[in-house]
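B., you asked whether I could sanity-check this one before it goes into the benchmark set. Here's the sequence:
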Amino acid sequence: MSENVVHLHKTTNPPATVEETVPTVLTVVPEPAPARPVPLWVRSGRAVKRVATDERTKNTGRVVVRHGAYIAGGARIVARRTWDGRTGSRYERMIRTAEAAGNLEAAEEWEERLQRFRAARHHRRMDLLHSPVEAAKGAAVGVGMGIGVLVGLGVVLAISNGDVKDVITPLSATIDFIALLIRIVQVVWGPLISIGPFLALLALWTVGRQQQAAPQWALPANVRSSEGEPITPSIVVKALRDLGITPLKNAIKEMGDAGASMLSPITIAGCGVEVDVTLPSGVATDEVQKRRRKLAENLTRHEHEVFITIPAAARTVRLWIADSGALDEPIGPSPLVTDETMTANYKTGRAPWGQDLRGDAAELSVYQRHLLVTGLSNQGKTAALRALALWLALDRSVQFWIADLKGIGDWAMFDGIAQILIEGPSDDHVIQATEMVEDAVEEMNRRIEERRRDPSVVFEPLIVVVDEAQLAFMCPVVGEDKRPYGGSKATSRYFMAVRKIHNQGRAVDVLMWQGTQDPTDQNLPKLVREGAHTRASLVLGTESQARMALGDKAVDGGAAPQLLRQGLDKGTLVVASDGIKIPAGQASITVRTHFIDDEPAAEIAERAKALRDGATTLRVVERGEERDALADVAAVIGDAPRLRTNEVLKRLHALAPSTYGDQWTNDRLKSLLEEHGEEPKKSHGVMVVHRDHVLRALANRDTDGSASTAE
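And here's what the prediction gave me:
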């Protein structure tokens, strides 16, 4: 039997006639079966889970545990204080600590204090044997004297009133007063017994709360996040015990003082604390160094807040533990910015570079020291290098030749201070920078030759700065003499020029300062990096790069720039140098440098320019060309009305060392000016060249149509 389907929607064009009626067939769809009810135990478990994981439940649990721990911790602290006050345990702890630190004088002093404490305690105990008899005698005498005084007052009162009964009036009044006190005690004693335990618990809770004697996770959120757990000897020992070094763990268990003898006194050091740990036999210092992160977490600190160094003492590690969050706080502006009267001295002064981790000023001496600053990109390398140059620029005797191979204006404020300023990242700029360093080699050789003739001669310091030096080492250009500008072979022009300055430059105060990033053997050759007396590194990627930057000795001694935080520890340097104060026995120091922004840097540069005689900055290094000597004399004089002839010669040599070398003397300069109708004249007994005379000579020459060239 066939069935017709009836459409329930309205037909737009119904048929005109219906010949027969078709019955409608409806299909009844049964309702779906009801879902099975969730068992009661499942619903109960879910409800319990929701309640247990709710943040309000967690907070309530923390509050309950915290305040309960305050009471237990307060009882422990009070018991410890009582025990320390009644026994000599405090003195014994201090003796063990002093002996572990090797401080025998302090140990002897604490031993003397312990002997005095024991003698006083023995004296008190001996006095207790006689005190009952003495107390009884004293009580009998006191009662007798009291009764006598009261009877005497009664006699006086009876004589005054004429009534013999008044003799016992003071005595009876005293008895009544004593009875009243007894009744008051009887009334108060019951409630006092009831609330006494609660008052004692309140006192213990107060002590525990003041000392934060509760688990770290149960403390309030602000305390957990900002303050961290205070560093105590027991916490340090526990952190060392839980490092996972089996010999160390077993040795701590066997120590009678639970490991306290390993620790020196914990001292405050800047924004943290410092402690030396003498490791037991069988435990190497590098085993602790390799577990820096685990040790920091055991101390409730981040990894970057714990520094491990190796002092001079054998089997000893020095821990510096920062206060939580302290290293994320700025250290303040540079003294160069805040003190407008500050000056510099190349030979005896120290540059205010920043602060060490102890909060002390970190000052660097640059006297006859080549400098290398390296690190990853955009971590503050240029700012750290420029801060030293800005300070040194305040010494008017210092000359600067600068090549900024980044070329974005980081060194633009040295225009007017530096004799040479190259700015740009192209191969042409690298070629100019290489030729500048080669000119510095020629200047160094000239000074050496002059020193050989006259050992007493003193030279003005020449600082040759190359920022982004990795571009020079990686330059692929080959010169006309078939020698590459870059590379690390004996044919490399830049490499060999830097090596020559490193070898002999410091003897005549020609110094090489380089800033480079992401060091490798290709962009920072071994011989160059090891030629720097001061080596500083910002954050790096690997330990091998840290060894390239600072050397094996510094890294083996605990230097770890690879553990600094990229982007968060900008301007934090690990420095290896004898020009900065480093704690005894350490090979490096961590410095948080002052950041000097472009605007205050320009203001410092203006102060430096005011100390100088208008230095003319040459922005392009040119070689192998004929030069207009008279025009060069006018250029080096600049805006100065007059200059001493020897100063003019120095500036000519800085302008083009290959042209104005040893052959240019006072006589040569005098001949040049006389050729055009002018000549140097004396001023206050010193030969000087007047700017107006040089300009007049130029005007006369242009009129005559002749020009003098320097050969």
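One thing to flag: The longest strand covers residues 510-517. Otherwise nothing jumped out at me.
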